[in-house]
Amino acid sequence: MTVPTSLGNEAVIPRAAHKGPLRREPLSGRVQFTYSTRFVSAKVQACPASYELLAGEDVAPAPGDVVIARISGIANHKRVETETSRKAIIYEGALVALAYGHRYAADQFLAHVPGNLGRCHLVAAGGVAGTVTQVHALIDAPTGIEPLGLLCDADGVVNLLGAAPYQNVPVAEAPVSRPEVIAMLGTSMNSGKSTVMSCLVNGLTNAGYRVGAGKVTGTGAGNDRMHYFDAGANEVIDFTDFGYATTFRLDYDAVRALTVNMVDVLSRGNDIVLIEIADGICQEETAALLRDDVFHHTVDQVGFAAVDALGARAGVDFLTAAGLKVGLVSGVLTSSPLAMAEAAALVAESGVPVIGTFDLTAAEVAKGLTTR
Asked: Which InterPro entries does the UniProt record give (predicted)?
């Protein structure tokens, strides 16, 4: 979007945002909002004159705070996702609206919210800013950004929580009334969870179910959301709808509440609910969730995506020991008939079927996995 201004197409900031006294600067120039900041974009578009930039050496960003930043060194990320999840090419000097967030991505970055408005990184194409501290060996260095200031209005700094359509109200119990809920888990990032879930959404839709699909944890990005819609889901939401750019390092009570609240929202008007839990079962928030009685009473069964046979066996054993019903194994390993056969042999005594990812699109296969 373009913010109307008399100052031309470039924001004018007299000094680095993390230096000098506390101050407000005009919001000006052409700013590309992103998937994670889409709800804020709508508010700014409605009344751009109400917004400014807050800068100064005492300004410390918090997770979810919206920052206007200039691209200053394109590397790993060469595009950002727009509000509609279009992949927009970024150029040196372009202004983007991002949200600060911690990121945990074993195949990409470990990143944290910095303590000031100094130069940092674009840590996710969905529109997340942070300071990268670890990089996967096969990934390029992160794209650099120069923060110009935190977006603010008359009430103070703009945070995603204030613009989100849903509130993550505190809850300590499972939903009282809900349809069947299946949670999709995996060995790790890129184990095939989203593809498996999309195929299961499609199969259940083909079987006549109205499917509600959600992504409970992870890093803000529209890819998975769009996959679920493409697969035929009746309704799709994710954690960004509750005001979170990422869920890494989120207070655990909030993670539990997010799971329950998302299932509650998706239970209205749908016959079955599918939710994806990001990353692998060893990731901190995920591991805690799997041990939680509230989670156990919120889902009926879990599906498990694995990259190889040993991962499939370990995952089934781990989840079963945690007291969860494992309904299927699928994922990247099903690309290989040999790996499928190995996995089937390893989990045979558990009675859990190993199903080809795209076989889940068949109505009879998907319906056969339901328990109600």
From this structure: P-loop_NTPase
